[in-house]
UniProtKB/TrEMBL annotation:
Entry keyword set: ATP-binding, Coiled coil, DNA damage, DNA repair, Nucleotide-binding
Annotated family: Belongs to the RecN family.
Official protein name in the record: DNA repair protein RecN
Organism, scientific name: Rhodanobacter glycinis
Coiled-coil annotated residue ranges, if any: 318-355
One GO term of the biological process aspect: DNA recombination
Protein role: May be involved in recombinational repair of damaged DNA.
Segments forming domain RecF/RecN/SMC N-terminal: 2-508
Domain of life of the native organism: Bacteria
GO MF annotations, alphabetized: ATP binding
GO cellular component: bacterial nucleoid
Length: 557
């Protein structure tokens, strides 16, 4: 559930923070006041494309933020956990749009891309803007609606999974039985495996080979350097460290005879003399033992050259060539044993297709039952929403081809007759914008509870209607609000009166700027706002009384 929305420097809104509760919240205001800005803000927080024109004039950026309570949204919690964006049972969305057009987004304080924002928002809020109901014209969307209404996601999911498995098995079969291409691939794999088996090394052996190469390449320098250091430590020169240390020890010994507190320091010099001698002896032995084997160096150099060449060919670091050998060997073994493998894959594909037929048949049965029920229920609601005699039919037709299809064995088409006596025709060909909006609302009412989205937003779904129909629309929205959080932008008092809460958007112009203010109305404020919506410029006592009565009648539950 949406609990709060914050906007700053957004269009004509300087700053606003709105709290939301459960039920139906209506938003009203005079034409041009910016009622739909709340919907626009939620759309942007849902990943819609950012437009620099939404940044308030004179500002460098617009800031949008929303907070959702996830206690009743397990799918959203699971998504956040999978993406490692979870934060208790609260979710915060934030987006910043800069004046030059760029934007950034965060979920629970962590940066995300627009795709992630859209995925998460689809689990949090469902937005029916003035153009979003156009999605009803898509046949794929219509089929998804029918499946949601049928309510058995597990069967539809099983159909998708089995179709995917069937296609993957087909790809493996084609790869294993590729004719001449298969023979060429076998020949290439054998050659590459032979090369990698000869030259590729595990990581630890490669590291040792490279270390040996460095030693052999610098053997002369190492031997010469070790001898030079031995001369510095223990040579015949009077400046050799061991001779200097001996003289130092003798002088300190004389002083220690005068003050026994110097004895510990003398002991330190004794230890230093021993360690210096061991270092000189060790370096002497090292210099004598340095390997000056040019044949071994040539052998290692060739080995590393081969590894570099193989790394370039396979586009891999040398350290990963040994793992690549394992991959190629597995593919080679699979291709060489293609006879048995093909039989197993063919049998597995046949079993998968049989399982698909069973699942798709069950899905088709559920769809046919749901299509009849959904058509009847939506037709009834269409009549209540001012489309008397209107009929909606959910037509199912067989999909092309016999192969397993992720969408099942049929396609869906919504057929509508807006007037009695007219034959139903495809919705995408006959419905006007207003009819689409009301059909969308009817479908939402009919499919209530079939999805897990906690918040629904309607932007002027009551456009083009009035009177008793408007009151019915308001009642339907209120019934939605009894089980879902609903936000509705409206210009009709019949709809506004049905809200559990009411926001008013107003625009104020000064000498050099325009500001939009969003406020939550109390009972008196709601009465006055309904009176304005009813009476226009002049609000009389009778208009206020009418508004009060509308509120009292709407709020009886």
């Amino acid at each position: 559930m949406l609990t709060s929305l914050y906007v700053r420097h957004f269009a004509v809104v300087e700053a606003a923070e709105i709290s939301f509760g459960p039920g139906l919240t209506v938003v009203s205001g005079e034409t041009g006041a910016g009622k739909s800005l709340l919907v626009d803000a939620l759309l942007l927080l849902a990943g819609a494309r950012a437009d620099s024109g939404m940044v308030r004039a004179g500002s460098d950026r617009a800031e949008l933020a929303a907070e959702f309570d996830l206690s009743d949204l397990p799918e959203a919690r699971a998504w956040l956990k999978h993406e490692e964006l979870d934060e208790d049972e609260v979710c915060q969305l934030r987006r910043v749009i800069r004046a030059e057009g760029s934007s950034r987004a965060w979920v629970n304080g962590r940066p995300v891309n627009a795709g992630q924002l859209g995925e998460l928002a689809s689990l949090l809020v469902e937005i029916h803007g003035q153009h979003e109901h156009q999605a009803l014209l898509s046949r794929a969307h219509q089929l998804a609606l029918l499946d949601a209404y049928a309510g058995d996601d597990s069967v539809a999911g099983q159909v998708r999974e089995l179709a995917s498995q069937w296609r993957e098995l087909g790809s493996r079969i084609r790869r294993l039985s590729g004719g001449e291409d298969r023979e060429q691939r076998l020949e290439l794999l054998r050659h590459e495996c032979d090369e990698l088996e000869k030259w590729a090394l595990p990581a630890d052996e490669l590291a040792e080979l490279e270390a040996s190469h460095r030693r052999l390449a610098n053997a002369g320098k190492l031997a010469e350097g070790a001898a030079g250091i031995v001369e510095l430590l223990d040579g015949d020169s009077e400046f050799a460290l061991r001779r200097a240390l001996g003289r130092t020890h003798a002088e300190l010994g004389k002083l220690a005879e005068l003050d026994d507190r110097l004895a510990p320091l003398l002991e330190l010099l004794d230890n230093a003399t021993i360690q210096l001698g061991e270092a000189a002896d060790g370096l002497g032995r090292y210099g004598q033992d340095v390997d000056l084997d040019p044949e071994r160096f040539t052998e290692i150099d060739e080995h590393l050259a081969r590894l570099h060449e193989l790394g370039r060919r396979h586009r891999l670091p040398m350290a990963e060539l040994h793992d690549k050998l394992g991959e190629l060997r597995s593919e080679l073994d699979e291709l060489e044993g293609a006879g048995d493998a093909l039989e197993q894959l063919a049998a597995q594909r046949e079993r998968t297709q049989a399982q698909y037929v069973t699942a798709a048949t069950a899905l088709s049965k559920a769809r046919n039952i749901a299509a009849t029920r959904l058509g009847a229920e939506v037709s009834t609601l269409m009549g209540e929403l001012g489309m008397a005699g209107g009929v909606l039919q959910v037509a199912l037709e067989a999909a092309d081809g016999d192969e397993p299809d992720a969408q099942g064995r049929e396609r869906c088409e919504l057929l509508v007759s807006a007037n009695p006596g007219q034959p139903p025709r495809p919705l995408r060909k006959v419905a006007s914008g207003g009819e689409l909006a009301r059909i969308s609302l009817a479908i939402e009412v009919a499919t209530l509870g079939k999805d897990s989205v906690g918040s629904m937003v309607f932007d002027e779904v009551d456009s083009g209607i009035g009177g008793a129909v408007a009151e019915v629309v308001g009642q339907k929205l209120r019934s939605l609000g009894a089980q879902r959080q609903v936000l509705c932008v409206t210009h009709l008092p019949q709809v506004a009166a049905q809200g559990h809460a009411h926001l008013r958007v107003s625009k104020h112009s000064g000498d050099d700027s325009t500001h939009t203010r969003i406020e939550t109305l109390d009972s008196a404020g709601r009465r006055d706002e309904l009176a304005r919506m009813l009476g226009g410029v002049e609000i009389t006592r009778e208009t206020r009384a009418h508004a009060k009565k509308m509120l009292e009648q709407a709020q009886v539950d």
